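Reading a protein record of the kind used here takes only a little practice. Think of the row as the fold of the chain written in a discrete alphabet. With that in mind, consider the following protein and its fold in token form:
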Amino acid sequence: MQNASKLSIKIGFHKRTFSFLALGDHLSAMDKDRMNEVYTEASYQNPWFTIDNIKLSMEGLCHYLDETKLKLWLQTYQIQETRAKKIGVVMAGNIPMVGMHDLICILLSGHKAMVKLSSQDDVLIRFIVKELLHIAPEFSSYIEFAAQLKGMDAVIATGSDNTSRYFDYYFGKYPHIIRKNRTSIAVLDGQETEADLQALGLDIFTYFGLGCRNVSKLYLPAGYDITRLLPHFEAYNHLVNHNKYGNNYFYNRSIFLVNQSPHLDNGFALFQQSSKLVSPISVVYYDFYDHPDQLNSELKSVENKIQCMVSQRADIPHRIKFGKAQQPELWDYADNIDTMKFLSGL
């Protein structure tokens, strides 16, 4: 791949859009043996990236690259065909290919991407870019992988609350989006169906709970018997056999036992009543609410920490159906910051 600064090939909006649609079709039809080779290499690099989880992320990427969805998404923006800006992007590596949404936004908005990959997700992003360049070689002047970001016009950086301070220090002088820790919650009212509770397991345990869209805390109506939830999560009991997840489960269980902290244990996950929002891996926090007004007030106070709210309650804003937290659309932005609006306004 050539350095983005050496070439100045302009790619029109329709060509960019067509290229990504073709990429979606190409990935969907790609030889399974070839895909499994890539998945295996990625899982060796990062043991959290199981082949099943990589496949799920790939399905999500192809779900993005749909003509109807792309048109619906892009029609809300005024994308100007002006001089392409160089956008530095620091990608996360908590779940497979999580940085692809930023790359798609940057390229479709007509800008160039200087990508600082996560060491935890190097294989998959490079693979996707390589396949894109087979379809549209012109993008070689629009994508650059870099060990350090410098000479850019704007920055998008994703990290933790701690790394955000580092990002602010180094990138604060540029137009920027700097993302911090977020998590997701579920609000139950006691009227959920068996199917709802079964689907809640997807929201909690998909990707081992590592994503910002994973539910880490349950809000339950006063008097709710949390033990009625546990049988609905049994489909995920295999997670304890995964080395890294299992280590977290046994470690957290030991801490609870040594400290004599009240908790529930279903053999692969721990449930603890807590006022905290973000739970450790293998732990699900829960708390009770007496009245909707009290609940809404509490949620309002932590809204800058919440990515998704899963619920069937009509008074929960922007609620997501049970089982859908890990199925974002193109317009579901991390930290609820409109990346395309930011990029199209540069």
User: Anything to note?
Assistant: The chain has a mean pLDDT of 94. Residues 4 and 141 are 4 Å apart (CA to CA). The longest strand covers residues 215-221.
